[in-house]
Amino acid sequence: MKHPSPSILLRSLKKLYHPPKSFLRWQTPLDLLIATILSARCTDAQVNRVTPSLFARLRTADDYLRLSRAELERLIHSCGTFHSKAKYIHTLCAKLKKDHDGAVPRTMEALTALPGVGRKTACIVLYGAFGKNEGIAVDTHVFRMARRLGLSKGKTPERVEQDLMKLFPRREWGRINALFISHGRTVCTGQRRKCGQCVFKRECPSSLVTGKKDLVGS
Is 15 a catalytic residue? Predict the structure, then answer.
């Protein structure tokens, strides 16, 4: 299957967008970890409305543990699935205190051993907080664009990540997430994709401009 070459694709996206390392607002590695957990099934914009007051009040793992579960649920209620998120935050903070002296660990293995932390969250934290390229965070935008552009036929985030890591140099892994999100939000949207405005409209194997079927659903 033909698709835009990875080097041209990356170069084109860099010209179009200059995203931050993370669209979530944070100051410390713990902030970023908590914000990423809250972003599950929730928009970054909503998380960013909740976290300023949350992070001003809760700075350390001990701060979260001193807070009752009910109060934490109240503070994060608008981020959705607040019961499970509050439970994950309390249990991971307890593990941070027990195993890492309250600090956020800097390895994929240690991060994914924390409750509620999968590869996507770990990739975001490692790159955003520590500048480490240990993988590619595959969210809905990255998954959709990778499939639509013919970069992967994977049906799971894990498989898509493996395919993307083979195509792009490691030094760029951390940037893929923000660049793909930027394009996925503005042009390569889930519904009513704007292929006529896309820089890849001729090369993309899913382009409406050339009458192609959307590979996302294939």
Answer: no
